[in-house]
Design goal:
By secondary structure, this protein is an alpha+beta fold. The chain has seven helices and 15 strands. The strands form three sheets. Strands 7, 8, 9, 10, 11, 12, 13 and 14 form an eight-stranded antiparallel β-sheet that branches. Helix 2 runs parallel beside helix 4 and helix 4 packs across helix 7. It is elongated, with a radius of gyration of 22 Å.
């Protein structure tokens, strides 16, 4: 969307001095990292600096396909990023400190580059250049997924950093003492159920009807098939049937297979797979989203299954699911 006015609130956090209109050539990085300003804007926001003609053309269409695609594993349509397109002539110092900036320009050799902390602390700036709109569009098709991943990973790191400041330290200590692992636990979570190889943490927000849950399960490792999508669906269905009962007789949680979960290899060392999808209740009408990370602990010859699942029937879900993703990405064995 062409909506510079939405960023007026940023002016409240920036010095109210007069701002000159700039192009990319005229804007220079700060000379010293120590004098960088704090970044502004919200996590998951992306400022795209692009001429109007490009935004309204093929290149703009490709950018929307990359950055406004729907988040996986959420039943409603919610885009990966809240995108604000800014013409280079309108890019003033108000926007210069934003967390995420993508700058596209025509008239030079094709290139894709990233700069961390160009104008603000913990900022990510990415530049995409090409000789023509056709070349720019082709570059976005080829490099778009990588560029999106840069911004997604940067936002994930910011969420983890934010969690560290407000985490439930006592709960984290209990988990470390009892299960020998570390994981950032957001404020408000309590242990709902604990066994020798399984722990369930839960946070209820009744005023907004949001319930967030975390599972950690350890399983002896015997063969590679245990890291398959089919096996891991069986694992979560077993946990759901055992631990999550509905309000109706013989109701329990299961994986929604009408929209099959997405399954991705995240890392070879340690071997880690991610699964995103929807859950539902057998003999009941509840449902929601889940995300799981499954790690192979070779040293102990076991599988560590971590999952976050959400019940949030009225609220938007992206923020809550991204918090659960940040929690699980923080998992470490002692």
């Amino acid at each position: 969307m062409k909506a510079p006015f939405l960023y007026l609130f940023l002016a409240l956090s920036i010095c109210l001095s007069a701002c000159k209109q700039n192009t990319e050539v005229g804007l220079k990085p700060a000379n010293s990292r120590s004098v960088l300003a704090p970044n502004t804007g919200n996590i998951s926001e992306l400022v795209i600096v692009i001429p109007d003609a490009l935004w309204n053309g093929v290149a703009g269409t490709e950018l929307k396909n990359i950055f406004q695609t729907n988040v996986l594993g959420i039943p409603q349509q919610e885009a990966l990023f809240d995108v604000f397109a800014i013409n280079p002539s309108q890019f003033s110092s108000i926007f210069q400190t934003h967390k995420n900036i993508l700058w596209l320009s025509i008239g030079t050799t094709a290139s894709v580059s990233r700069t961390d902390e160009k104008w603000a602390k913990n900022q990510l700036f990415v530049s995409v250049k090409a000789n023509s709109e056709t070349e720019l569009s082709a570059l976005l098709v080829a490099q778009g997924e990588k560029i999106s991943d840069w911004f997604l990973r940067k936002d994930l790191a910011r969420r983890v950093l934010k969690l560290k400041k407000t985490a439930e330290k006592e709960v984290q200590k209990e988990l470390l003492d009892a299960y020998n692992f570390q994981m950032l636990i957001p404020n408000g979570y309590k242990v709902a159920h604990a066994e020798e190889d399984f722990v369930w943490l839960r946070r209820d927000k009744p005023k907004v009807n949001v319930i967030s849950n975390l599972w950690v399960l350890t399983i002896p490792y015997t063969n590679p098939a245990q890291l398959s999508k089919e096996y891991l669906i069986q694992v979560r269905d077993s946990l759901g049937r055992t631990h999550v009962e509905g309000s109706r007789p013989q109701s329990y949680m299961t994986t929604e297979m009408l929209y099959e979960p997405d399954f991705t290899l995240l890392s070879q060392n340690p071997y880690t797979v991610e699964m995103r999808g929807l859950w539902t209740m057998v003999n009941d009408f509840l449902g929601g989203s889940f995300i799981s990370y499954t790690r192979l602990d070779k040293a102990s010859q076991r599988i560590i299954y971590t999952e976050g699942f959400l019940y949030c029937p009225k609220e938007r879900k992206r923020f809550h699911m991204q918090e659960l993703e940040a929690v699980m990405s923080s998992f470490k064995m002692k």
